[in-house]
Fold this protein.
Amino acid sequence: MELTAEAIRKTLSRVQDPDLKKDLVTLGMIQKIKIEGKSVSFDVVLTTPACPLKEVIKNNCLEALEEDFGKEPKWEIHMTSQVTTVREAAPVLPHVKNIIAVASGKGGVGKSTTSVNLAVALAESGAKVGLIDADISGPSIPTMFNVEGEQPTVKKVGEKNIIVPITQYGVKLMSIGFLTPAESAVVWRGPMASSALRQFISDVEWGELDYLILDLPPGTSDIHLTMVQTIPVTGAVIVTTPQKVALADASKGLSMFRQPQINVPVLGVVENMAYFTPEELPENKYYLFGKEGGKRLAEKFEVPLLGEIPIVQSIRESGDTGYPAVMKNGQTKEAYKNLAEAVARQVAIRNASDAKTEVVEIKA
Ligand SMILES: Nc1ncnc2c1ncn2[C@@H]1O[C@H](COP(=O)(O)OP(=O)(O)OP(=O)(O)O)[C@@H](O)[C@H]1O
């Protein structure tokens, strides 16, 4: 077959994105085809830098091309990415492509730990990431990022005061905890918290972000309703442990997002503390809180199980020392990396599906 851009496109239109179930050409993923003699280069623009199928897609392209053009041409395939969004021309946070709420029904199940490691894992994949700590009951993000006691600066843009978020480990951070000294026992009442959060949305210099993670307080109170209605959430991630009481509360949390007045797509469930594993014997698993509760919850609500995170001493220690577990090599890094890939994948699937019309945008 003659080596032309059109012929290459025709061949690549046989290669599908396994998640989006459409071919790469129709999805607009094949760009910058350059032919120089027998050397061909082109870009494959994926929907997220955290794409777990990068290698699979690349190999499928190569296979199809060699089938049609033989082994002689030299193929140079650049795997790049551009995170997708359904928030074009959004009234608030117009440069933030996706807002992901991390929620749990019950407290203490590891929602903040999950948010932190998810945010850092996404940033490590190359995405632009922000994190809002909306946990008014006990903001722990400053500690988990080792920025306790730091205060965001304020700058004037025109007539307006703009808050510059704190950046740590490649993630832009705002926390209710930055606004009150750690030792003070300020109780954030609903309206006060909502107004602080509204400020986080309207007065913070977030810039361009691929993913803004929102660490919500535990539970399903009125405060949640206000928060979720204040912030135009793209999708929600539900964190639970496999324990019966946690699962019952997680069901409530999940159902909250599906209420008609909220109507936020649930991206999936994370089973935290899924099993205990001693770091020196990673193949030994002990199901302290029961087995596969998160999986059953995900099945019941017909949403994906995004990850199973073991209970490991170093995860707790990393939280306390402010050096997220995902930054250290080993088994927990893999678990969080896989989680980030699964979340990014579900966001891309959401954005490509018809469900996008259901995402509610509410002005802050
Ligand atoms: N997979 C894990 N392995 C070991 N320890 C964990 C794990 N996940 C969370 N923890 C620890 O459990 C405690 C509670 O976690 P975290 O603060 O993330 O929970 P939370 O659901 O956000 O709590 P809150 O209800 O206070 O918001 C912390 O000390 C944390 O370090």
Notes: The chain has a mean pLDDT of 90. The pocket of adenosine-5'-triphosphate is lined by residues 104, 107-113, 135, 138, 140, 218, 272-273, 309, 311-312, 315-316, 319 (CB under 6 Å). The CA atoms of residues 47 and 84 lie 6 Å apart. The domain at 5-81 is CATH 3.30.300.130 (GMP Synthetase; Chain A, domain 3).
